[in-house]
Amino acid sequence: MTSERDVPAGAVKAPPAPPIPGASGDAAPGAPDDGPRVRRATLLGAVAVTGLTAAACAYLWQTDPHQPGQLLPRCPFNAMTGLLCPVCGGTRMVYDLLHGDLPAAFHDNAALLLLGVPLAAYVGGRLLYEGLRGRRYRPRPTPRALAAVLATAIVWGVVRNVVG
Questions:
Q1: Are 148 and 155 in contact, with CB atoms under 8 Å apart?
Q2: Cβ proximity of 86 and 156 under 8 Å
Q3: Distance of CA 93 to the CA centre of its chain
Q4: Residue 134 vs residues 42, 122, 144, 156: alpha-carbon distances, Å
Q5: Using an 8 Å Cβ cutoff, are 57 and 49 in contact?
Q6: Looking at residue 99, what DSSP letter applies?
Q7: Contact 76, 84 (CB under 8 A)
Q8: Alpha-carbon span 141 to 126, nearest angstrom
């Protein structure tokens, strides 16, 4: 990338190429419009995710993860160490939310309920919004944001195992 100092005196700087409607921000100038393909893929993905989520919720509605012996996967980290990982309790939290029990969902995993659910809703909504407008969206968190998420997960994992 060149700066103003790198441009020789008297040189004319070319204006940036105009954006291509419907193309991703990474598309090269003159690339074909991939908006309809992006919209179709977004709709198919949204239908698939909605169907799988509905099926999982229907199964979870009937299956109480608070009771032992249910056909639900166990957390591999918890199975190996006996400690709670930062997302342990997520299945119980979803079960409680499906049944309208917000205090129990908060008790199952407060950090996931207060931070993870809104973040997932934002990213999913943004993917859908941009996709339906014919644009690709690739979340690109900054190193600082990744460090904040990792630090939050580590602190929550320690707190919930020490405090109980």
A1: no
A2: yes
A3: 17
A4: 9, 18, 29, 38
A5: no
A6: T
A7: no
A8: 14
The two structure tokens encoding residue 52: 């799988």
pTM above 0.85, yes or no: no
> Per residue in 98-115, is it b (16+ CB within 10 Å) or e — as a string?
eeeeeeebbebbebbbeb
Distance CA 126, CA 157 (A): 28
- pLDDT tens string for the chain (164 positions)? 555 555 556 656 656 655 544 444 555 444 567 889 999 999 999 999 999 999 999 999 999 999 998 999 999 999 999 999 999 999 999 999 999 999 999 999 999 999 999 999 999 999 999 999 999 999 999 999 999 999 999 999 999 999 87
Nearest CA to 152 out of 106, 122, 94, 109 is that of 109
In Å, the largest CA–CA distance within the chain is 78
Question: How far is it, in rounded angstroms, from Cα 54 to Cα 154?
Answer: 31
